[in-house]
Design goal:
Elements: H1 2-13, H2 20-37, H3 40-49, H4 56-89, H5 94-97, H6 100-125, H7 143-147, H8 155-188, H9 193-201, H10 204-222, H11 230-255, H12 257-273
Helix pairs in contact: 1-2, 1-11, 2-4, 2-11, 4-6, 4-8, 6-8, 10-11, 11-12
Length: 284
């Protein structure tokens, strides 16, 4: 969470990072800060106090916000993939096709679609009747464990979940894959090795994040019906809900020279304000 907040601050204060790529990265960092906040506090309370209980309304609320942010992240990653496609494959048209107004529109549409998808699903879920025993075999309130608690017919809800998941995951995944197919094809056509390395460095961080997110997401939502993979499912759920948001800032900062440079300059400025001689700080 601290790493994501630091990225947001860097993107906000450094003029060199006021570009579409870092605008999207700042929004992704904000989303993942919220994403972690829906799960981590409750996990810490359970760990420190030993209190394993949660109210039904609290469980549905956690599922709602988690689902909203997860669906929105799928669209964010697709938008970021499209941005890298334009930057590498259509550089002469990049400034026109990815101006400030379009950037804001793409982010706003991502938030709105994520909100609509999970709102429809949660409204249907709230109409179900639940049994007296609320024992969730999971570390957070995900859709499948919650639906299994219902005493009602869940066919309509499960069909709605399939449709909304398809709308949330399939188009964004196809956009992401198609973007990187074109990107890799274009990079391989660059004659010089230095040029290929420079081009690939602009999208390698995002490709790493996309691979981890979609890889764990697909494993989690393909394997849950298989009892022998139940524990493995929890491991991958922990990966994409907790570890991935924590790791993403380090992935972007370690692989990105501009972020590292901005961080060094910010640290130098803070050292300067604190009275430490600037010659002790290498800001190049």
């Amino acid at each position: 969470m601290v790493g994501n907040i630091l990225l947001i601050v860097l993107v906000f204060i450094d003029q060199h990072l006021h570009t579409p790529m870092y605008f999207f990265l700042g929004n992704l960092s904000f989303l993942e800060t919220c994403y972690s906040s829906t799960i981590m506090p409750r996990m810490l309370i359970r760990f420190l106090s030993g209190n394993q209980s949660i109210s039904l309304s609290g469980c549905i609320a956690q599922m709602y916000f988690f689902g909203f942010l997860a669906a929105t992240e799928c669209y964010f990653l697709a938008v970021m993939s499209y941005d890298r496609y334009l930057a590498i494959c259509r550089p002469l048209h990049y400034a026109m096709l990815m101006n400030g107004r379009i950037c804001i529109l793409l982010i706003a549409v991502s938030w709105i679609i994520g909100l609509l998808l999970i709102t429809i699903l949660t409204c249907l879920l709230s109409q179900l009747h639940f049994c007296n025993q609320y024992i969730i075999d999971h570390f957070f309130c995900d859709f499948t464990p919650v639906v299994r608690l219902s005493c009602s017919d869940t066919q309509v809800v499960e069909m709605a979940a399939f449709i909304t998941s398809s709308i949330g995951i399939l188009p964004t995944f196809l956009i992401t894959v198609a973007s990187y197919v074109f990107i890799i094809t274009t990079i391989l056509k660059i004659p010089s090795i230095t040029g290929r390395q420079k081009a690939f460095s602009t999208c390698s961080s995002h490709l790493t994040v996309v691979s981890i997110f979609y890889g764990s997401l697909m494993i989690v939502y393909i394997l849950p019906t298989m009892e022998k993979f139940k524990d493995l499912n929890k491991v991958f759920s922990f990966l994409y809900t907790v570890l991935t948001p924590m790791a993403n800032p380090f992935i972007y900062s370690l692989r990105n020279k501009e972020v590292r440079s901005s961080l060094r300059k910010t640290v130098c400025q803070l050292w300067g304000f604190s009275g430490i001689p600037k010659k002790l700080c290498i800001c190049n």
